[in-house]
Design brief:
This protein is α+β, with helices and mostly antiparallel strands. The protein has five helices and 13 strands. It folds into two domains: 95 residues, Beta Barrel (Ribosomal Protein L25, Chain P), CATH 2.40.240.10; 86 residues, RNA Polymerase Alpha Subunit, Chain A, domain 2 (Beta Complex).
Length: 241
């Protein structure tokens, strides 16, 4: 896997107030965790970080992180990323340091390739049920995605985790091998279409569920709470956003 370079500065000030001031200057707080040592508080340039993310199709990447004032860069992976609930801007990032000789657990997107014959010739509907595959591998063997050919799928047929082509020498699949990844369903009858339309209309009439937005300051507080959990081995499953 191609490695990505990123620079950072150390961060001395903590707390929501200092984090807010930092974000107004185009930077945001972050932490680098390592097994058996305290987290390293750093700050990242928002523009540089966003550009880095855009060059990758997934968040599975090895980053050569050069921290100002330190002689050698460290190899890290993205552990967690917090966004502002209203603006969507990145407000905090957690990294963890990795060893290139120690296996980690990651989730890799599954990309469906081709048009199923059950869709093209039989009028069926393709359903992408499972979108990521959980695997264990060395950091250097990480990939952006696994491709699964669905061209031969007929109506009523399925492809499961065990059908995803994976190099067993590099990857240990942790997902249930019997879990359905893709299927071609028969087209809906007129009665089913009518029932689905009525259900959607009733849901729309009920109005959206009101969610309580978390305060921006929780990004910094969440990072402090996460330091204890980060002492676990780097092989733990990457936290979902």
């Amino acid at each position: 896997m191609k490695e990505t370079k990123l620079t950072a500065k150390t961060r001395a000030e903590k707390g929501s107030a200092s984090a807010g001031r930092l974000r107004r200057t185009g930077w945001f707080p972050a932490v680098v965790y390592g097994e058996g040592r305290p987290g390293l508080d750093i700050q990242l340039n928002e523009h540089d970080f966003v550009v880095m993310l855009r060059t990758h199709r997934s968040e599975n990447m090895i980053v050569d992180l050069a921290v100002e004032g330190r002689e050698q860069p460290v190899k890290v992976m993205l552990k967690a990323m917090q966004h502002h609930p209203l603006t969507g801007r990145i407000i905090h990032v957690d990294f963890y340091e990795v060893s290139m000789t120690r296996k980690i657990e990651i989730e890799v997107p599954i990309r469906l390739v081709g048009v199923p014959t059950g869709v093209a010739n039989e009028g069926g509907i393709l359903e992408h049920v499972l979108r990521t595959l959980e695997v264990q591998c060395l950091p250097g063997d990480m990939v952006d995605e696994f491709a699964l050919d669905v061209a031969d799928l007929h109506i009523g047929k399925t492809l499961r985790v065990r059908d995803v082509p994976v190099d067993a020498a590099k990857y240990k699949v942790l997902s249930d091998p019997d879990q359905v990844v893709a299927a071609v369903a028969a087209p809906r009858t007129e009665e089913e279409e009518k029932a689905a339309t009525e259900t959607e209309a009733a849901t729309a009439a009920a109005g959206p569920e009101v969610l309580t937005e978390k305060k921006e300051e929780e990004g910094e507080a969440g990072a402090e709470k996460g330091k204890e959990a980060a002492k676990a081995p780097a092989a733990e499953k990457k936290e979902k956003k």
